[in-house]
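At this stage, I wrote out one protein's amino acid sequence and its backbone structure tokens, and that material follows here:
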Amino acid sequence: MRRVIILLMTILFIGCKTEHEPMTKIIFLHHSTGQAIWYGKTNRYVRKLTDRSDVKVFFHKHNFKHKTNYKISKLSFPADKPNYPYDYHNIWVNNAGEKPYMGDPTLEILTKEYNIIIFKHCYPVSLILEDTGNPDIESSDKRLENYKLQYSALKVKMHEFPGNKFILWTPSVNVKNNMTEEQALRTRELRDWLVSEWDEKGDNIFLWDFYMYETEGGLYLLDKYARDINDSHPGREFSGRISPLFSQFIIDVAEGRVE
């Protein structure tokens, strides 16, 4: 009888401990490419009927197995505009503050609600034009010279929130049929600059190298990973393989295993 009582008390203690585990709230800001990875192999009919996604299932299983309390959600961001470096810079730097900008939350708003903020760019970010020699941080032109200024300002802004963690995807890229070789080379230069120069070890910003998963070291989204040879969205099989890798990276960042 005594053993039964001790066992019951142990179960109750473990249950209470799990119940009161501090919640880590995570938000994934995305558009269609991010949505493909979010859902992974989840059937489109299941998506319409339920809130299921491969990422959410991964986190549910991880929470159950490891007694953690991660809560992840997604948000289309910006709501009705592209999500290029210019757009993040315009909302989070130019229009920073406690009020949303044109309906989109600023970092002041997001950082109060979420511990980890993940953001990315749509694949047209890779349609990079030749530099002019006159970089302009306020320009929406897709040029390396502008991107670098905007990314640099965004990094300074994110450093204002040392209690939060940020994850940025390296750029999504087009299939070969949808971009020139010059644009592809500039996109690889952007990815390399982010990894080797922009990223700082030991700060609160972490890079997830989506570009390398898409290209495997080449210049384009591999045709076998795309919806088809003329559609630069990730295909279902590729998304299903990458979704758990993305999910595990988020957890590794949350638990301090990524520099």
